[in-house]
From TrEMBL:
Site annotation Transition state stabilizer: residues: 18
Catalytic residues of the enzyme: 23 (proton acceptor), 98 (proton donor)
Principal EC category: lyase
Superkingdom of the source species: Bacteria
Keywords, ordered alphabetically: Amino-acid biosynthesis, Aromatic amino acid biosynthesis, Lyase
Pathway: Metabolic intermediate biosynthesis; chorismate biosynthesis; chorismate from D-erythrose 4-phosphate and phosphoenolpyruvate: step 3/7
EC id: 4.2.1.10
A single GO BP: aromatic amino acid family biosynthetic process
InterPro entries associated with the record: DHquinase_II, DHquinase_II_CS, DHquinase_II_sf
Gene (name only): aroQ
Protein name: 3-dehydroquinate dehydratase
Species this protein is from: Neotamlana nanhaiensis
Amino acid sequence: MKKLIIVNGPNLNLLGKREPEIYGSLTFEDYLKELKAKFTNVEISYYQSNVEGEIINKLHEVGFSYDGVILNAGAYTHTSIGIGDAIKGIETPVVEVHISNTFGRESFRHQSYISPNAKGVILGFGMLSYELAIKSFVN
C-alpha cells in the first residue's frame, strides 16, 4: 500500500469559506473523505499549517519514509526558498499542486520555488488537482 501525505500551506484551512469563486465551496476535510473513499488502496495522511517552518519540519519528518508528498504550499510557493530547499533535501518525491491556475492570476504567482525540485506540477483543476497528483503516484 502506497503511503502519501497531502501538505497544505497558508490559508488553505479556509477552503469552503475563502473566495469560493476561485477555490470552491467544499472544505478540504470533506474533500479528503472523498479522496480516501476513492483511493482505498492508498494510505493518505493530511497536514495543514499556516507557518512556513512547520511545513519544512513536516517535509523533513516524512521525506524519507513516505512514498509521496502532495504539496500545496499556497503563497509560500512564491516566496519560500526554505521550502524549496527542504524538498531538494529529502528523498520522497513531491508533486506541487494548486487549485487555481496560478498563471492566470497576479504576476507574482507565476514564480515557484517548489517547481524546480518537484516531480511534477498540477494546477488549475480545482480540487481535482489533488486527485490527479495521487494518480501520479499510484499509476
